[in-house]
Amino acid sequence: MPEGDTVFRAATLLRGALAGKPLTRCDIRVPRYATVDLTGTVVEEVLARGKHLLIRAGAHTIHTHLKMEGVWDVHPPGTRWRRQGYHARIVLAVEDAEAVGFDLGIVEVLDRDREAEAVGHLGPDLLGPDWDPAVAATNLARDPSRPVGLALLDQRVMAGVGNVYRCELCFLRGVHPATPVADAGEPAAWVDLAHRLLMFNRDRVSRITTGDRRPGRGTWVYGRAGKPCRRCGTVIRTGALGSAEDPDRKIDWCPHCQPRTGDGPAAPAP
């Protein structure tokens, strides 16, 4: 699932292929921007902002978001695409490389001075130069009655945490995702752990939160519903904890290590 670390790697890949080079092809396959052609424009920068990716070329910024299924591929010109053409939302080529964005949830072209419309609402980027743990902790504490599992997904709090990290952070802190922020422990501790997890994984293709690099051993609870907890052996449960816009967002948790209030002692955070 694309989260801040995935977008960080995508930006690094695209930056290495496109930055400093003029576009030899610009094919945007989104009706609203189908007539936009930046061919000949030099790509100045490629950067990640949380789950958003910005490609700055001349007076414009191409803003994309992977959502659930999106991916960027880079390959030599003329190479066969790994997905069928109808999945492509944008094709950007330079003399020695071609970048294709498949199944992207958002593709838009903005005037450079309008970037804030796309990313200005974001909190500090966990993997960005603007990272500020004090601001992120203040943001997290702002609504003490909000379930911590919802607050962690709010990109206005800190940018980059998605559902995988939401579930894993709650397990590692020994807190059920529905626990109010006020009862979930120090916001600074959540922020610090989130930063450490994403930094550890930002250059990894296979995300690891357990420290175990063996295949199938990378997560504590995410994607493990019905399997025994790696810490206590209790069967991992699954349910939903989402916002009004996305009410069915799945959560996985261990009922012993992460009890709801009144259900018993939580396992200590590492």
UniProtKB/TrEMBL annotation:
<keyword id="KW-0238">DNA-binding</keyword>
<keyword id="KW-0862">Zinc</keyword>
<dbReference type="Pfam" id="PF01149">
    <property type="entry name" value="Fapy_DNA_glyco"/>
</dbReference>
<dbReference type="GO" id="GO:0008270">
    <property type="term" value="F:zinc ion binding"/>
</dbReference>
<keyword id="KW-0863">Zinc-finger</keyword>
<dbReference type="InterPro" id="IPR044090">
    <property type="entry name" value="Nei2_N"/>
</dbReference>
<keyword id="KW-0511">Multifunctional enzyme</keyword>
<keyword id="KW-0227">DNA damage</keyword>
<dbReference type="GO" id="GO:0000703">
    <property type="term" value="F:oxidized pyrimidine nucleobase lesion DNA N-glycosylase activity"/>
</dbReference>
<dbReference type="Pfam" id="PF06831">
    <property type="entry name" value="H2TH"/>
</dbReference>
<keyword id="KW-0326">Glycosidase</keyword>
<dbReference type="InterPro" id="IPR000214">
    <property type="entry name" value="Znf_DNA_glyclase/AP_lyase"/>
</dbReference>
<dbReference type="GO" id="GO:0006284">
    <property type="term" value="P:base-excision repair"/>
</dbReference>
<keyword id="KW-0479">Metal-binding</keyword>
<dbReference type="InterPro" id="IPR035937">
    <property type="entry name" value="FPG_N"/>
</dbReference>
<dbReference type="InterPro" id="IPR010979">
    <property type="entry name" value="Ribosomal_uS13-like_H2TH"/>
</dbReference>
<dbReference type="GO" id="GO:0003684">
    <property type="term" value="F:damaged DNA binding"/>
</dbReference>
<keyword id="KW-0234">DNA repair</keyword>
<protein>
    <recommendedName>
        <fullName>DNA-(apurinic or apyrimidinic site) lyase</fullName>
        <ecNumber>4.2.99.18</ecNumber>
    </recommendedName>
</protein>
<dbReference type="GO" id="GO:0140078">
    <property type="term" value="F:class I DNA-(apurinic or apyrimidinic site) endonuclease activity"/>
</dbReference>
<dbReference type="InterPro" id="IPR012319">
    <property type="entry name" value="FPG_cat"/>
</dbReference>
<dbReference type="InterPro" id="IPR015886">
    <property type="entry name" value="H2TH_FPG"/>
</dbReference>
<feature type="domain" description="FPG-type">
    <location>
        <begin position="220"/>
        <end position="259"/>
    </location>
</feature>
<comment type="similarity">
    <text>Belongs to the FPG family.</text>
</comment>
<feature type="domain" description="Formamidopyrimidine-DNA glycosylase catalytic">
    <location>
        <begin position="2"/>
        <end position="101"/>
    </location>
</feature>
<keyword id="KW-0456">Lyase</keyword>
<keyword id="KW-0378">Hydrolase</keyword>
